């Protein structure tokens, strides 16, 4: 466990030292929301508000987390291979991806509410939906990024491979957050929350089991 | 065991599919409002999807066996299963769409089951692209196996769970009675299950031919 945290911390420090990367991600969030704001103005329709939020969220996730394995050079991967085991590697990337997604989602939600409005009824539940969704997105895209890094090493492949795999999580999250927007309460939202937790666990478990096969060359 | 030059299960496949096509159109079906004779699509559309899912599971199993053994023949089997799965999936999509046009009045409606099916087709397409982007045989086999296990397991969970949680136009969901409710005399079952087995065997037959051709190529290249 401490290996995982150390690796995740290393991941963070590497990105932190290159401020341009962090700045680039923030700018990506702000300018995407701004483009949507310019083209849609205020969104009154609730399902549209929700759908737009999650579409932007998907693009933010792909754009920021796809780099997790793509940025690693071959030599550095070889070095990691000699000092840590595969499971710690994938878990640390996921932990870092989750942290990144939580921060970016919070900023996204803030800017989005400011410009496009915020008709959410149940903030606590919406927050949980964003958190669980971010976990799923981070886990799926980290794994897909590991797969794409082994293939042709381009970021386009991450979205081609990642979008279809994201659909289950995205659809569940959209339904869950719609319940939060309407303030329907936990009796209705509970099944979506449980399904989302189940899917997330499945993704993490699959990545945990499959990543070792990707890693050894 | 061979019968007149063909494996016994291939004769079974021919027999079952002939039976399906004949009985599919001739069997007495319940008279239902709106559905009328289109209920016969159950024997084709639904059964093709069942077979596609069975072939999908087969490709996951072969993927796992490849990862455990490193034997390229399992990889060829997995991808052959995926190819015939795509074939049945496309047929299922076309028959479903045709049916939807005449019962719901649209070629496509926004519905959990339909979207699950479309998502499965997207994963198939992504799998093909991933395979074609890799040159080295062993590397391609390994990475394709990892992706297919990862994506299809998630997809199966999704196809199975999500439609049961939401209301849907699709028969068998929400407030809409499923086919099983109509089928009081269980006459339809006598066609439905043979059809599932028949289509699955057809898919297996196609996969087997592809597997044999590619195995010859593999051994020729290795020499």
Give your account of this protein's structure.
The complex is a heterodimer of chains A (217) and B (223). Chain A has 9 helices and no strands. The two termini of chain A are 25 Å apart. The longest helix of chain A is centred in the middle third of the chain and has 31 residues. By secondary structure, chain A is mainly alpha-helical. The mean pLDDT of chain A is 86. Chain A has one domain. With 223 residues, chain B is an all-alpha fold. Chain B has one domain. Chain B is built from 7 helices and 2 strands. Chain B has a two-stranded antiparallel ribbon with strand order 1-2. In chain B, strand 1 and strand 2 form a beta hairpin. Chain B is globular, with a radius of gyration of 19 Å. The model of chain B has no long low-confidence stretch (mean pLDDT 80).
Q: Nutshell version of this structure?
A:
Chain A has nine helices and no strands.
Count up the domains of chain B.
Answer: 1
- Hey, which two chains have the biggest interface? A-B, 28 and 30 residues
Q: State the distance separating the first and last CA atoms of chain B.
A: 30 Å
- Return residue spans of chain A where pLDDT drops below 50 for at least 5 consecutive residues: none
Biggest sheet descriptor of chain A = none
User: How is the main sheet of chain B built?
Assistant: 2 strands, antiparallel
The figure for the number of domains of chain A is 1
Q: What is the count of β-strands of chain B? A: 2
Q: Which stretches of chain B of 5+ consecutive residues score pLDDT under 50?
A: none
* Estimated structural class of chain A: mainly alpha
Strand content of chain A: under 5%
Task: Assess the beta-strand content of chain B as a share of residues.
Answer: under 5%
Portion of residues within helices of chain A: over 70%
**Strand order in space, largest sheet of chain B:** 1-2
Structural class, from secondary structure content of chain B? Answer: mainly alpha
Dominant shape of chain A: globular
